[in-house]
Structure formats: structure tokens, C-alpha cells
Amino acid sequence: MSSNKPTKIDDDSLIVQIVQVTGRLGLSMAGAMCGTFVAAQLTMTNAELFDSVGFIALMVLVGILGFYLGIDLPHLRASLTEPELDRRRIDSIELLSKIGTFLATIAALISVYAFVFDETLRGSSEYMVGSWWMIGVVLQIGAGLIGRIRLARTTR
């Protein structure tokens, strides 16, 4: 006689999945906030290219995607894929993600500072901040996608 009652393992798995999704949504919101501050700072530079709703929406969207995909990478255990690897070796995907996170957040930090203290970025500094943001989130998105593709290939 089989019982259809959920087991403790099923309950724990569901809780872990809910926590994982909640954490990723939080990371997405952080990315959206960072993208909003960078976009706000760039629109204050009076550059016509940056002063549009589409640009602001793009900055927020890439922030959401970058922080959702790139910060919370699925981990491949080196022992499963290549047991002879030295454990101290840095995974290239993780390195890309961390560099991307650093660049994106430093751009957001500079933008928040300038916004809060009513500073205007001058000269090429606004383009530098915008470039750091875009390069950072592109690295995060790329690392997140590559990590997920690699994980899918190893679990088949």
C-alpha cells in the first residue's frame, strides 16, 4: 500500500527551491537598483543618447539579468568533471562573474555617490562609469549562461 503523503525530503527540497528563488529575486532587485542609479547619473550628464526611457529601461533590465544570472552561479564540483584538477585553481566562469560584479557595483557606487552628493561626472568619467556598468553586467550574464550550459551538459 503506497502513501501519497509528502515526505520530509520533499518538504526540504521545496523549501530550498523557494529560498533559492527568493534569493535570486533579491539579487535581481539589487541589479535593478544599481542599473537605475547608473542610468540616473548618466542622464544627468545631458547627453542625448542617455536621456530616454528606452535607455533607462535597458540599464535596469541588464542589471536584473546580470545580477540574477551572474552572481548566483551553479557550482560544478571539480571532482565530478575533472578529478585531477587542483582545488586551488580558480574557475574561469566564476572569475568572469566576480570581475563583472565588481565592475557593475563600483559603477553603481560611483553613481550613487555622485547622485546623493549632487556631483556631476565630467569629461570622460561618465562614459567610464557607463562602460564599467555595461561590461560588468555583460560579464555577469555571460558567466551565468555559460555556467548553466556547462552544468546542463554534465548532468545529462
Q: What can be said about the biggest beta sheet?
A: none
Number of separate strands? 0
Low-confidence stretches: none
> Structural class, judged by helices and strands?
mainly alpha
Q: Number of folding domains?
A: 1
Task: Explain this structure.
The structure is a single chain. The protein has 5 helices and no strands. The model has no long low-confidence stretch (mean pLDDT 81). It has one domain. It is mostly helical. Helix content is 72%, strand content 0%. The relative contact order is 0.16.
Short description:
With 156 residues, the chain is mainly α.
Give the tags.
single chain, about 160 residues, mainly alpha, elongated
List the helices and strands and how they pair.
Elements: H1 8-43, H2 53-70, H3 78-81, H4 92-116, H5 125-154
